[in-house]
Specification:
The chain is an alpha/beta fold and 256 residues long. It has a single domain, classed as Rossmann fold, CATH 3.40.50.150. The protein is globular, with a radius of gyration of 18 Å.
């Protein structure tokens, strides 16, 4: 079973990966999330929550834009890496909390960040409802999660078949761990859960066209081809092929 230290090591290598496609997929998501935090924060915002901070990539960004930042995770072990960040950012607090049944105070956060977490939670609808509960009226949710039928998710299932994972690790020469995605959703499913919880989606985006074998063996040339196709797929009938779906949602009057 993958432990917290292994997951953090994996997350830290993704943004500097020797594989151009792998690096691009994750850096694109990072840049979109950072830009969204900066764009949806304001001088009036005081408190932010990140659910499942992982390696803590976004915590310094949140700490720079909000007076008080809380990072929560269901497992103490997954917060241990962020303790070093907490010593450098006095406005950052770490708490153990189950977002599907949160103990955080209702109506106290201006912004909730939940990126690459819902796919690890079987009851994502409960998680989203609880995020509604802790947001102030008019608060903002920044959310990202993989698309259910994206080629990367399908390829990941093949990669961890018996005998395959050693070959994949040989090709990448980097940490390759099972992603642990137990709840992959389509755009329709994610939006339905957001709206049922009392949010209104005000912005959506998708990124990350992964092509098996092209990504592994064509290097920078393969990446250029993937980026070319991504620009033409996005917003069309086939944008379900893109790996990551992003949403900005605002709490509506009467949200739970």
């Amino acid at each position: 079973m993958t432990n917290a230290a292994e997951l953090v090591e994996l997350q830290e290598t993704l943004y500097t990966s020797r594989n151009p496609t792998r690096r691009w997929l994750h850096c694109t998501r990072r840049d979109w999330i950072v830009e969204a935090i900066e764009r949806w924060s304001s001088l009036g915002n005081t408190r932010a929550l990140e659910v499942g901070p992982g390696s803590g990539l976004y915590l310094p960004v949140l700490a720079a834009h909000f007076r008080d930042v809380v990072a929560s995770d269901i497992e103490e072990a997954y917060l241990s890496h962020a303790r070093g960040l907490a010593t450098r950012h006095a406005n950052l607090r770490l708490v153990v909390d189950d977002i599907t049944a949160t103990r955080l105070e209702a109506g106290t956060f201006d912004l909730v960040l939940c990126t690459e977490v819902l796919e690890h939670i079987r009851d994502s609808a409960a998680a989203i409802r609880e995020m509604v509960k802790v947001l102030k009226p008019g608060g903002t949710l920044v959310l990202s999660t993989p698309q259910r039928y994206a080629p990367l998710e399908l390829a990941a299932k093949v990669a961890f078949l018996p005998g395959m994972v050693m070959l994949v690790r040989l090709v990448y020469r980097e940490p390759i761990l099972e992603m642990g995605h137990v709840n992959l959703m389509t755009e329709r499913e994610v939006v339905a859960q957001i709206e049922a919880a009392g949010y209104t989606v005000v912005e959506r985006f998708k990124s990350g066209l992964y092509l098996p074998l092209v990504a592994e063996f064509m290097g920078d040339l393969g990446l250029r081809f993937e980026r070319f196709l991504e620009a033409r797929v996005r917003g069309g009938l086939f944008d379900w092929l893109l790996w990551t779906q992003y949403y900005i949602a605002r709490r509506t009057e009467g949200g739970a």
